[in-house]
Amino acid sequence: MKQQPDIDVVIRYLEEPGNEEHKRSLDEWLQLDAANLDIFLETKALWQGDVLPTAASYDVAHQWQLIDAQLTATTIPAVTATLPPVQPVQTVQAPAKGKVRALSTRTWWAAAAAAIVIAAAVIIYRQPLYIAQQTAQNTDSLLLPDGTRLYLNAHTSVKYPRNFQKNSRDVFVQQGEVFVDVKHMPEKPFSVHLKNVDIEVLGTSFDVKETKQGVKVFVQSGKVKAVYKNGKKSVVLTPGEEAEMLLAGTTISTRHHRNNNPIAWKTGQLTFVDAPLSEVADVLEDYYKVKIVVAEGLADKKLLATFHKESLSEVLDILSKTLQVKAVQKDSLVEIY
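Now predict its structure.
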């Protein structure tokens, strides 16, 4: 849940960027909400007298790296506000009723700081155009403004508009894996955008995964169209079908699943119906994040089993007894022989 931004946290850091307590407070506040980064950048720009960039022009990932480096550095150079030089104060003789007091430098700076705080407070209440969501080791889910629900796997980053356009709904997957349960709205197509692939749907549920090789799309229900951004190739997928689209932008391979193993990370269930051991190994590798080596001659052994949130050691024990093989795990390596 978002918390009310504390402008004092930002101001204290800008006043004393070398103060370790202020750095820790700023770091904790930035972690509360991805939108707080925009607030900090805009406030800092105002403090330094820079021209404020538009929200959409920020390279958010790069800015996070810069801020993280600053907050973890041993020493951080001081940030000073760009303000006009203070002119020497001249004493002015007042009428007989009294003297006019000269405005001290301290008071002038306090007034300037107050003006900055007020202007920054106005910025804070300006809603950002996009909302960003990121997971670490955990999975998470979120409900979009249209009723569509996103399920995020670990190490996933997405962003979406605070308000969808009248005739379209667009979500951007920057990394990781997302299961999308789309709210059916035929008059308002839903699109998921990745680095080199766009996915177009009306109302369906599907999984999209960004890998080092490319993009994988698996459809649980409905129908989706996956299109290379270069426009050269596309594929239409129906329930149970999965497509892998390589980064090269020209190769699409498809396969049909008799189960929902591609979304086991979300359901917690793995199903194998006379599945060859080679296929079982691939699925277990992806689900448990390990490397599995199958000895020569065992790849075609068939497994009939269903697992629901069992540990890897439990799965390997059942697999060994069922197929009459040995499975030995050492750290993140599993050998089956």
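Residues 34 and 234 are 33 Å apart (CA to CA).
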